[in-house]
Amino acid sequence: MQNNLFDRRTTLIGLAASVAGFSMPTSVFALTEQGAKALVDQLVGEINKVISSGKSESAMIKDFEKIFVRYADVPIMARYALGNDGRTASAAQIQNFTRAFQGYIARKYGKQFRDFIGGQVIVQSSRKIKSGYEIRSTVKLSGQKPFEVTFLVSDRSGRDLFFNMFIEGVNMLLAERAEIGAMLDRRGGNIDQMTADLAKAG
After folding, report:
1. What is the pLDDT of residues 71-110, one digit of tens each?
2. Backbone φ, ψ for residue 119 (5° rounding)
3. What angle do CA 198, 147, 165 make, to 5 degrees?
4. CA separation for the pair 88, 77 (Å, rounded)
5. Could you give the angle at which helices 57-71 and 33-51 cross, rounded to 10 degrees?
6. Can you give the residue ranges of every domain in the chain?
7. Strand partners, 147
8. Which residues contact 28 (CB under 8 A, 6 or more apart)?
9. What is the pTM of this model?
10. Beta strand ranges found along the chain (DSSP E)
11. How many CB atoms within 10 Å of residue 152?
12. What is the CATH topology of the domain spanning 2-13+30-197?
């Protein structure tokens, strides 16, 4: 039961999957608290729409990937997940990995969407932080204790996007970085091979 609950909670990570410890340069943000909150409100609305759509799992996963690309700073998140190995990767390798990463996230976490049917994600509060804004929300699932999900929103890439996500304080993209790093290690640091395998994983 506990593992199932964890799996349900990690479904949301695909939307961000998180970048704790990721240092973003200080700048004058055009992003406002209202804009950051509106982004998460829209994101939550689309999540709730998909999980109540009654679509097949494969169709929901496709919708999930579209939502991820629309609301998340995927290039920033993918680079963080790739870690130090990204510094020596070519532009083509980075592009291929980013594409594989977004599909991997969609498949891995989108498969659990059905566990959220009948649930609700509610935006609770927002506050300014160094890298943008922190938006806190509560997830309520039928028969389960509510838990907190926090989105970090920035306009570093030129538009309002979330670049980080925490579930009850846990940085989940950091876990993805560790997993992808382990995949690279098992392949002798071969980014192309890891990317090809990632494109089929999840």
Report:
1. 999 999 999 999 998 899 999 999 999 999 999 988 887 7
2. -90, 180
3. 40
4. 17
5. 170
6. 2-13+30-197
7. 139
8. none
9. 0.78
10. 120-129, 132-140, 147-154, 161-167, 170-171
11. 23
12. Nuclear Transport Factor 2; Chain: A, (3.10.450)
